Amino acid sequence: MFQQICKLLITSSIALLSFQVHALDSTTRNGNLIAMGLPAFAAGMSFLNDDTEGVVQLIKSEAVTLGIVEVLKSSTHQMRPDGSDNKSFPSGHAAVAFSAAQYMQMKGGWEYGAPAYLAASYVAYARVDARKHHWRDVAAGAGTGMLTTYYFTDANSDRRLGMSWTGRSASLLYQQPIK
Q1: pTM for the whole thing?
Q2: Whole-Å CA distances, 84 to 80, 81, 88, 144
Q3: Rounded-to-integer distance, Cα 62 and Cα 57, Å
Q4: Distance between CA 45 and CA 102 in Å, rounded?
Q5: Among positive and negative, which fits the CA dihedral 92, 98, 100, 106?
Q6: What is d(CA 119, CA 1) in angstroms, rounded to the nearest whole number?
C-alpha cells in the first residue's frame, strides 16, 4: 500500500510538473515547479529515511492545507490583481510550498528547513510578480500551510519552531525542553 502511494505521488508530481512548460516567463514557471517540487522532495526525504508515518503526516497536512485554501477561495471571492478570476485569497501555491518547508524543517532541522523556506519564499514572490496574488494572499497561504503542517507533523527533535496566525496577529513560537 505504501509503495503504491509513493508511486502515485511521484507519478502525479511528474504529470503536474509537465504541465508547467507553457508558463509565460521563467519566474512564473520556476515558481510553479518549486511549488510542486517541494512536497515531492519532502516525501522523498521521508521515504529514503524509512519514515512512513512522516509521509502520511505530509499527505494529511498538504490535503488539509488544500482543503482550507479551496474553502477560503470559494467563500471570499477576492479578485486577482490581473483580473482573471475571483479566487485570489489565499494563495494555494504558497500554502503548498510553505507546508512542505515547515515539514522539512520539523523533520530535517534547519539544514533542510532554511533552504526550503527560501524556495517557498521564491514561490510567493513569483505569484505576486505574475500578478496572480497580492502579498496578503501569499502571506495567508504561507500561514495556512505552516499551521496545518505544524498540527499534523511530529518533529524529530525536542525543539520546535512554528508560527501561528489568527487573522489579526502572528506569533513565532520556539519550544525547547528544560534539562
Answers
A1: 0.78
A2: 6, 8, 9, 23
A3: 9
A4: 13
A5: negative
A6: 31
